Amino acid sequence: xxxxxxxxRAIARHExxxxxxxxxxxxxxxxxxxxxLALVYTGYKAFGESINDAQTEWPVVGxxxxxxxxxxxxxxxxxxxxxxxxxxxxxxxxxxxxxxxxSLFTFREAAFGxxxxxxxxxxxxxxxLRSRWIERGLSPYLVASQTVPLVAIAPIVVIWGSxxxxxxxxxxxxxxxxxxxxxxxxxxxxxMNGIRGLKSADPAAMELMRSxxxxxxxxxxxxxxxxxxxxxxxxFKLAATVSIVGAIVGEISGGVTGGLGxxxxxxxxxxxxxxxxxxxxxxxxxxxxxxxxxxxxxxEFFVMSKRREGSTTS
Amino acid sequence: xxxxxxxxxxxxxxxxxxxxxxVFNLGKPNxxxxxxxxxxxxxxxxxxxxxxxxxxxxxxLLRLMGALTHPTEGSVLxxxxxxxxxxxxxxxxxxxxxxxxxxxxxVIQNIELxxxxxxxxxxLRKERAREMLELVKLPEFGDHYPRxxxxxxxxxxxxxxxxxxxxxxxxxDEPFGALDEMTREHMQMxxxxxxxxxxxxxxxxxxxxxxxxxxxxxxVVMSPRPGRIAADISVSLGKRDFxxxxxxxxxxxxxxxxxxxxxxxxxx
Lengths: 314, 268
Ligand SMILES: Nc1ncnc2c1ncn2[C@@H]1O[C@H](COP(=O)(O)OP(=O)(O)O)[C@@H](O)[C@H]1O
Ligand SMILES: [Mg+2]
Hints:
The complex is a heterodimer of chains A (314) and B (268). By secondary structure, chain A is mostly helical. Chain A has helices spanning 2-50, 76-84, 95-130, 132-147, 150-164, 174-199, 203-211, 216-254, 260-269, 275-304, 308-311. Chain A folds into two domains: 4-73; 95-307, Orthogonal Bundle (MetI-like fold), CATH 1.10.3720. Residues 309-314 of chain A have low confidence and may be disordered. Chain B has helices at residues 58-65, 83-88, 107-117, 122-135, 151-163, 181-198, 209-215, 248-267; strands at residues 13-24, 32-43, 47-51, 73-78, 81-82, 92-95, 169-173, 201-206, 218-223, 228-234. The A-B interface holds A 1, 4-5, 8, 11, 202, 204-205, 207-214, 218, 222-223, 226, 229, 306-308, 312 and B 66, 68, 87-90, 92-94, 96, 98, 100, 102-104, 113-114, 116-118, 140, 144-145, 147-148. The structure holds adenosine-5'-diphosphate (ADP) and magnesium ion (MG). Residues 24-25, 32, 34, 52, 54-60 of chain B line the site of adenosine-5'-diphosphate.
């Protein structure tokens, strides 16, 4: 008996180790890809620079492949060194500090957007689970909501936020409007995957709950929501990336300052005076995206570690 | 088949079906007459097996008793109440071919589930779940997750869960259908042991003749399309043990059930 206990504990330990090893492998692969990407970039840059006037008559090399210079493709080393330099003359802070501050600002908007989107999406999914009619009536509108271009809604939300939120116990800030814009994008994957996940509960388990005379609420909390978790985590990862996109686009089209969106807009408009700055700030956005998805993935690992999906090698 | 009494069923009657018919998709092109005028009375403490070819309505009959579906005609009484009321009163436990364990709950938490839904105190819950684990002989597996158990162990947990709130009636739908022969025979012994220990009424669906005969006091043979009761055979083998499966009485009962099944087959 003791040996059986020990065996299963050993298996659990092995699985944990496996999971950590898989995580490390992932990071290594990611870094290797980054190196490859940098090499490809640098390689093409060198190639594009070497195209000279004589070759512009050549069929592919001269006509199709664009020529490059430091303006179109700034050297990677410049992007890195630029991070340590102040982005404009009258400031003493390095570019990295600007990007970090802007990232945090955008992260806050995205985080609230993610949270409210999660709540709203789940609420909608549970509502649609309640009745077929609600689901049929609601889902076309949900889909339609996502086809409305963000640039059209963003200014409305920002104006509406600054004009009509006086009744709140706190002062409405422009970034809060951006969170609402992010919410507009994040609720959708959560609602759609949520309803699928809630319906994925094993029919035998549903009958079991019925045989226990379980209430709807009990069935939801004890069976349907836990069964939906794998689906929800897929949605949360989507929602996390989309919340960043929503926040950046929301900032840009709503004219909200302080975040990555505004920073990117600034550096884009002054691109010719310093191309590496734009590249660096876009990379800031990418890092932020990877970070938020990473957070969701880590949460998923801990929440799901007891489940088959979470702990078997696949 | 026993005569039914609609008025004041005696205390010894657990399940009473009175000319029950079940038609699925009534009035549609895919209409199915699953059951046709079934009369069946099951006395308290009996072990009854329902046997018949696949599709003859065994599961439907069991689900009617559990109020998971409702009769098109006729009435179903459980403990003298409507099946629905019995469900609300938690008068029965259920176990299916798939164990239906919640994979995010440990074994002990799975067994506690019905008690938790009924609002039991945490300490009492744990205590009862431990008792149940003893009953199904898995005392050391309480903190394991279902995925760490074999098929037979999962079914034992499912049975423990079904019995956790001490229902008098246990409804089982091919609970050992997915198990290998050896595990299956082992589980049969254990279910009999539980039955003897607890005195439950058990309705057991199977399509294995030896299983039905080995387990039951009574084998209800069903015929398909529409589902009817073809024969009602009592089995008296005394206390079951390892030799039972090799006894003459066992073979005689098997023959009797087999002939009842075949008779209906040729009579269609
Ligand atoms: N929910 C349902 N809808 C339509 N037909 C059903 C349903 N459940 C069972 N049936 C039909 O009723 C008949 C009896 O099914 P069932 O009780 O599952 O048989 P068994 O358990 O003996 O194999 C079958 O013909 C089956 O197709
Ligand atoms: Mg069946």
